[in-house]
Every structure is written in structure tokens, then in C-alpha cells.
Amino acid sequence: MHENVIFCYSGTGNCLDLAKNIAQGLGGADIVMMRSAPAVTDVREAKRVGFVFPCYGGSAPEDVLRHAKLLQISPEAYTFAVSQSAVYPGTGLSRLNDIVPLKYWRTATHHCSCIWLFPHKLMLPLLSVEKAQKRSEALAAEIAREVLSGKQSPKKPPRNVLNVAENKVWPLISGAKVQGFKVSDACIACGQCVRLCPRKNIQLINGKVIIGSNCAQCLGCLQYCPQSAISIGKITDKREHYHNPNVAAAELMESVIHVG
Ligand SMILES: Cc1cc2nc3c(=O)[nH]c(=O)nc-3n(C[C@H](O)[C@H](O)[C@H](O)COP(=O)(O)O)c2cc1C
Questions:
Q1: CATH class given for the domain over 177-232
Q2: Is 88 near ligand 1, meaning CB less than 6 Å away?
Q3: Torsion-angle region of residue 54: left (phi > 0), alpha (psi -120 to 50) or beta?
Q4: Tens of pLDDT, residue by residue, the chain (260 residues)
Q5: Mutate which of 20, 113, 139 to test ligand 1's pocket (most atoms within 8 Å of Cβ)?
Q6: Backbone CA torsion sign across 13, 16, 20, 22
Q7: Which residue's alpha carbon is at the smallest distance from atom 29 of ligand 1?
Q8: What residue owns the CA closest to ligand 1's atom 17?
Q9: At the fourth CATH level, which superfamily is domain 4-162+248-259?
């Protein structure tokens, strides 16, 4: 195990791209994917332990928090986390801080992957994909420098009451939404969505894609579909699909990515 370990959750690549760039800035790291139960949970030998994850519905994806509870981290380790969102970071960092006390935390914004709610171009500040990517790379370098210097955040991560309320109603809104997945005739039964789904919620039966109800809402299946054959209602048919330009679907399926 590398002395730097980053646990990463990513549905559409923005967070994995950020984690890889932070890892590079640190001079190397093992990125342990936590979309499914992490392959490595005992990281007591690591000197620095980080987390990079998106904001979903005002908080972190529930699987981030569930999987963080499984980890064994040395009390001496320097711990840090980055929450990435389209507009606001929500309470994910604060909830993670309750499980793994964080020495340093940051927020970042990148293009919106929640296609049924907003077009992907909605991020604040508004930036083109190219500019957002450049900004993300510059931020990763800055975060890596601060992590290496052992910087401590002066305050605890924020816990905005509006985001707490939003996160309570979120399962009702988005849970209902993801029951509406449709697969069009453009599907070529390549099976990528089946392999990509972190909850094994998608099956290929007699050449037909069947999406179940245990959805993590990461939207990787929809955003990475090579045929754009997956949608959730009419609005998502009209909207341009998006995934991070530097992250291939295959990378999201890895359990540990060694950088450096
Ligand atoms: C289901 C879902 C919910 C989201 N909720 C929020 C939110 O509450 N606030 C926000 O600013 N961005 C939200 N986003 C946008 C993501 O946080 C953002 O696009 C992030 O960069 C995605 O990271 P990824 O590409 O690594 O999955 C949401 C995205 C998804 C898929």
C-alpha cells in the first residue's frame, strides 16, 4: 500500500479525474474506488488518507458514508477530503467528518451530471468543459501542495440546514425519478452499463437491458452509454450527455488505481 491513499467515489468521472490529479501532485497514491465496497479497508500504514466524492442531493452519496465506516485509518494519519459539486457542496464533508475526523477539506465545482435536473452546462461559475477541466487541474495541484505541507482547515466543514432538509427529501424526489429509466432501440447490448453499475442493479437478459430499483443514482450508465440509449424521461433525451473527458468507463470499474 502506498503512503498516500485516496478513497474515491465517482459516477461520471469528475471526481476520479480530480483524485488522479491530486495523486499526481502528491508524487503518487493508491486510489481506492468506493463506488462499491472498497477492496482495501485497512490503511493504517498510510501517512495521508484522502477522500474525493461528489455532492448528491445536498450531501455525499450514501455509499460514501456507508463505506467510510468500514475503514481502519491510523490516528496519526493526515486526513483530507474534497467534495465536488455543480453549484454547492452540501453537507457531505460534515457527515464524513463525523465518521473520519478531517484535518483538511476543500470544495470544488465541475459540470453537472444530474441530467434529469439540469443540463450539464450548469455549474457555478459557468465555464466551458475545457475551462472547467483546466480549473480542476489547477485546483488539484493546489490541494496536493497544501496536503503535502500538512495544512489544517481552520473550521469544521459546513452543515447548512437547507442542505440537511434537501437531503431528507432527496430520496423521495430522485428515488422516484430513477424508477423511470428507459432503454431505446439504439441499445446494442454491449453490456457496458451492466459492468459499470456500482450496485449490480443492471442485467442483460436475452439481449435486453433490465434496470432494477437498487439505483445509486450515479447516472454512469446513462452518461457513458456509447449509444446514448439510456434515458430518464423526455427531458434527458433532449439534453447533451456528459462525462468527464479524461476518464474512460473502464477506469471507473477498477478497484484500485495506482498513480506514480
Ligand atoms: C444524483 C445527483 C445529484 C446531484 N446533486 C447535486 C447537488 O445537490 N448540488 C450540486 O451542486 N451538484 C449536484 N450534483 C452534481 C455533481 O455533484 C457533479 O456533477 C459532480 O462533479 C459529479 O461527480 P462525478 O462525475 O465524479 O460523478 C448531482 C449529481 C447527481 C448525479
A1: alpha beta
A2: yes
A3: beta
A4: 899 999 999 999 999 999 999 999 999 999 999 999 999 999 999 999 999 999 999 999 999 999 999 999 999 999 999 999 999 999 999 999 999 999 999 999 999 999 999 999 999 999 999 999 999 999 999 999 999 999 999 999 999 999 999 999 999 999 889 899 999 999 999 999 999 999 999 999 999 999 999 999 999 999 999 999 999 989 999 999 999 999 999 999 999 999 99
A5: 113
A6: positive
A7: 114
A8: 85
A9: Flavodoxin domain (3.40.50.360)
Q: Distance, CA 129 to ligand 1 centroid (Å)?
A: 15
State if residue 11 touches ligand 1 by the CB under 6 angstroms criterion.
yes
103, 155, 201, 203, 241 from 195: Cα distances, Å: 35, 40, 10, 9, 19
Mutate to test the pocket of ligand 1, among 55, 82, 121, 163 (most ligand atoms within 8 A of CB): 55
CA–CA separation, 81 and 104 (whole Å): 7
The CA 184 to ligand 1 mean position distance, Å, reads 25
Please state the pTM of the whole predicted model: 0.98
Residue 61 alpha carbon to ligand 1 centre in Å: 9
- List the one residue out of 7, 5, 1 whose CA is nearest residue 29: 5
Q: Where are the domains of the chain?
A: 4-162+248-259, 177-232
